[in-house]
Specification:
The chain has 335 residues and is mainly alpha-helical. 63% of the residues lie in helices and 4% in strands. The chain has three domains: 170 residues, Alpha Horseshoe (Serine Threonine Protein Phosphatase 5, Tetratricopeptide repeat); 33 residues; 113 residues, no CATH class.
């Protein structure tokens, strides 16, 4: 919430922009949008509503955007039913641009209707995500969808895994979208906000330290279900991987062989089929390309997704089995 002085400054700017319109008729639409935005920042959404109506009556260039902005302002004035009706009208238009989807979905989220926000972002993902590439718009929606589903406590699905992959920041999405963190960032308790700032500083220091270390040389591990899905969709890889126990032995043996050559900083990266296919699309290559899994492993390692190898013998096994490393992949004689 802005201070009274800030609200006054935004209101004054809105009035100044409106006075500019007669002198700059060619900029009528841009000035009205900017003035409405200033009324919203001034926490006076009722003043923005007639400006949105004027834009819609004048056949503006992007009516879906203006309707989305109006729906958000309506909800802020307490006209929730009208806002929902207008949101439905926007959805029926299937806007080709990202902002209307983002604005209305986040309006539902801000007003604590998380199921409606999740449904809205699901529709948006259907609209923007294609089999061929993850566009900027699809990436934005995938990450926003992940946040809302995390707040709802939903289990990860393929699209959440894809969001994890296209997210480029060092802090994983699951942590970034941790409900406790999101609530603390919006807290009115100064002590809670200070704790979150200190945590962010610690993460930044850890990230800088990680950047000073070389990336590990990583070997790709496909969990059992992911390997089955890979071989079902791309059977040409069957000769490379074999059965799941064969695959685990190959990973462990490859790491031992690399270690014997003196290679430092070894690690294991865990694959998922959705992120592998997303990587293939990003490289404009068929997923069945023989050399692609190794390049995908290098990409995962460079993004900080490698588990150092070998783990301590009493530590959990790198493959995710419910056993220690020494009892599973690291035991003498193999699996």
């Amino acid at each position: 919430m802005s201070s009274m002085s800030e609200q006054g400054e935004h209101a004054a700017e809105a009035e100044r922009l409106l006075r500019e319109i007669p002198q700059h008729p060619d900029d009528h639409e841009e000035l009205l949008l900017a003035a409405a935005a200033q009324w919203i920042l001034a926490e006076r959404p009722a003043e923005a509503l007639p400006l949105y109506d004027e834009l819609l009556n004048a056949s503006c260039s992007d009516p879906a955007l203006v309707q989305a902005l109006k729906a958000s302002a309506l909800w802020d004035t307490g006209a929730e039913a009208q806002a929902r009706t207008l949101a439905d009208a926007v959805r029926a238009q299937a806007p080709a641009t990202l902002p209307p989807w983002q604005i209305i979905g986040e309006t539902f989220e801000v007003h604590d209707d998380l199921p409606a926000a999740a449904a809205w972002f699901e529709d948006a993902t259907d609209h923007f995500l294609t089999p061929d590439e993850v566009t900027y718009e699809a990436r934005r929606i995938l990450i926003t969808r992940h946040r809302v589903r995390r707040l709802l406590g939903e289990s990860h699905d393929d699209r959440d895994h894809l969001a994890d992959y296209v997210h480029s920041a060092p802090v994983p999405l699951d942590e970034l979208h941790d409900p406790k963190r999101l609530w603390s960032l919006g807290s009115d308790d100064p002590a809670e906000v200070r704790r979150e700032i200190e945590r962010l500083r610690t993460e930044l220091a850890d990230h800088r330290a990680a950047l000073s270390r070389p990336y590990p040389l990583a070997v790709l591990h496909w969990p059992d279900a992911e390997l089955t899905a890979l071989l079902t969709r791309y059977p040409s890889f069957a000769a490379d991987y074999g059965s799941y126990p064969d695959h685990l032995r190959t990973v462990e043996e490859s790491l031992h062989a690399l270690s014997a050559t003196g290679a430092p900083y070894l690690g294991v990266v865990t694959a998922t089929l959705p992120t592998y296919e997303a990587y293939a699309r990003a490289q404009s290559l068929p997923p069945s390309t023989p050399s692609l899994p190794a390049a995908y492993a290098t990409s995962l390692a460079a993004r900080g997704h490698a588990t150092p190898w070998p783990p301590p013998h009493a530590a959990p096994c790198w493959c995710g089995a419910p056993a220690t490393y020494s009892e599973h992949c690291g035991r003498p004689g193999g699996l």
